[in-house]
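LAB NOTEBOOK - FOLDING QUEUE
OPERATOR: T.R.
BATCH SIZE: 2
PURPOSE: Compare the predicted structure-token outputs for two unrelated chains run back to back under identical settings.
PRIORITY: normal
REVIEWER: second-year student, initials M.K.

ITEM 1
FIELD SEQUENCE / FIELD STRUCTURE:
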Amino acid sequence: MALYEGIALIQEKQAVVLDLGTDYTKFGFTGEAAPRCIIPSEYWCTSERRFKRVYDYNNEEELYDNLVHMLHLLYFRHVLVNPKERKVVVVESLLSPTMFRETLAKVLFLHYEVSGVMWADSARMCALTLGAPVVLVVSLGARDAEVVAVVHGCPVLQAIQSQPLGARAIHDELARLLDRDNGAELHLPEHVLEDIKVRACFVAGRARALQLAEGGAPAARAAPYALAERSLTVSGAARELAAEPLFARDNELASLPDAVLQCIALCPIDARRELAENILVTGGSAALPGLKARLAQELRHLVTLPPYRERLRIAKFKFHTAPAHDNSAAWLGGALCGAADGGARALARDAFARARRLADWPSLLHTTPPSHPHWDELADAE
């Protein structure tokens, strides 16, 4: 055997980084600046003869099968590596369901027999890419918008905010506006609505949005869009107003700017000003032109109104630009963390085989120190 071949066998191989999103999955290697592939979170289901989404499941068995097929697609078609030879860094949301996490662990450890898995929450991974001690991460996902404050490497759990204001909310409003402009229900699929959003839509400023709502301003120029069977005209109003559900307020103060301010208000008082000056907006919808500028305008306006006027004394809101595309900032953080850690904090396969469960922050057993007088009772209850 040649010398360089022996060295290659001894050295630890690069771990893979998995960011399994609702609509898109990012997959690649640690230490790299971008994922090797960004593909839809779906696979071809031979039994149903259709593309099936990973998150379309009714029970744990169906989810297990979905994850097996999805990971097979990633490992053996897109990156062409043996899963047994490499550890995995899983980038996930702090609000990921326990059943999904444990089912994914079973697929990785038992089906693909990976040597170790490190679980990394997306908020801390996004903050890691900036190198700042205090960061407010606003993640616009497919279904939900999550706001998490990361203070010195620790997410402030009691301040987490989540609202159903992701890409689906924009797609629903865009579909409604297109149906209204065309005088009929078009029933456009999700991928067409997403393509229209990316190609034609933008976010208007706060003053212009108010004028458009009152009918006192001319709309932007309409844009043509070609479908397979006919052409479609996207009106200027649809282009400008598609993202308005993110900023619409109701009696429950459930808009995206309200979620940001509520998260800041629930954080320690000495970190609030620094959080407001270190905001990072990530996710696919964060790339909409004008969204960050509109969010800054709404924050500056709402902070002068109750109930924030009495609780927050903040005058400036500043935004960071991540050193990656907006939709892959969390993946880049996972790649950096995995490369720096070297797999030391990864959960080994034999350790998972003994316990068959993962440490989870909502569980009292995993957040209570063993020295606590009731720890034995919690262990028996679990």
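ITEM 2
FIELD SEQUENCE / FIELD STRUCTURE:
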Amino acid sequence: MEGRMQGKAQLSDSNRRIMELDAPPRRVYQAWKGSNLFFLGGRLIFGPDVRSLVLTVCLIVVPVIFFAAAVCPQLGHEFHSQIGGWEASVAIIFTAYILVVLLLTSGRDPGIVPRNAHPPEPEDIDESSNLPDWPGGQQGSTGLPLTRDVLVNGVSVKVKYCHTCMLYRPPRCSHCSICNNCVERFDHHCPWVGQCIGKRNYRFFFMFVFSTTLLCIYVFAFCWVNLRRIMDMHQCKIGRALLKSPISALLILYTFIAVWFVGGLTAFHLYLISTNQTTYENFRYHYDRRTNPYNLGVGRNFVDVLFSRVPSSKHNFRAKVKDDSSAFTSSLSMGRVLSPPKMSVDLEMGMKRQAVAAEDLEDLHSQIGSAMGLERCGTEPPHFVGRKGCSEMSSDIEAFAEEFGMERGFNERKKIERRTNDDS
């Protein structure tokens, strides 16, 4: 009996060591519950539609390459000067600046609000909380009011309870269904940059849109200058000039279409900034029909949105956290060893648990061998409870062996022991 209990204790100690090896500490970005994608070890965070960013970069870079390689040399030849080189240099530098602003827009935390591990207690909610104005006006499953009133610049504003993040959203915060996060000062989710636009990246988004508009105008203007120069030099009409410089014609058409999109977006966001609104608020609440509690005047609105300090992220994506996924466990229960669970898959991370090190497998082989020796009823003390304990021990060891890929060796050893018992 004493030897058997010692064998169980050895298995239990081994399981604990396996648990420590199998569940190394993960970082925040590896245990992230949103739909974001991380790169460079959590230094860059993108939305789940980050692949659209490749298309956006191509739509910017490819026309500039054609402009610098075809139109600018032609302009330099026609003007008999270095003007073509300067035009190409300005376009390339300006494009590099746009790409940097684009990365700052799409590759950083837009202002994600940390989730609560548990919903707030109903008694922590103040008496000013009101039941929602939705049909039925019922409380949520947590017993909390689905909305509550907060004061913003003397104006009462309703904030909603987010069942996913388990918190009352701060004013101007909304939950993005694409990224599955609550974002401060949520403006919209932009598929062109593959990221939410919020409090921490809105100014970079506006700079990106505004700078792209200027680049379109720049390329459009110099392509027209090139065509006009061809018409003057060859004393021809626009049709013949287009044939002599088809790249200029294509870039004029492309930038003319693009400037309506990015230029219109720039004008719309200039209006939003001047009135201190977000795209979400403009389409949902129509502040022009009622008082906007965030409007501080045109000048102060521009300062507040574009020139105020960018708040620090509320997340350290590279910080280490404990892995709360299931691991191998064992304990003594009713005089037998609990078998370890099968290798599972973390539903949130989609990652399989790491394999056990080779030296631990060797240790398990030896320990299972000793346990098998104890399993035979011939070695049990007379007062042990018959064959039932043996069968329970056998099933547990069998599951344990199968977990670590030792089922074949285990079955062979069991056959040998049965032959020995039959011969005796």
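REVIEWER COMMENT (ITEM 2): The mean pLDDT is 75.
FOLLOW-UP: none requested
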